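Um, can you check?
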Amino acid sequence: MNWLGYGPDIRQARRDAYTGCARFRNARRPDTATVITTGSKAEGLSCLFESKIDIMIVEKGTMCFEVGIEPNKLPR
C-alpha cells in the first residue's frame, strides 16, 4: 500500500494537510463559522485532485437538539 500512496504515514500526512487547510480557513474568519473537513479527505484516503472536498460549516452560536430535549432547561 505504501507504493500506491495509501500507507499509514502518507495517509497521516494528508490528514494533517487537510486539517491545516481547515485551520487556515477558520483563522481568516474566526467570528462567523467553523470549517471541518469530512469524508475521504479527512481520512487521508484521497489525494488533492482525486475527488471532491467535503466540508462541514458550523455557524457560531448554533445549537442542534434531538427530539425531546428542552432547550430552555440547558445552561446558557
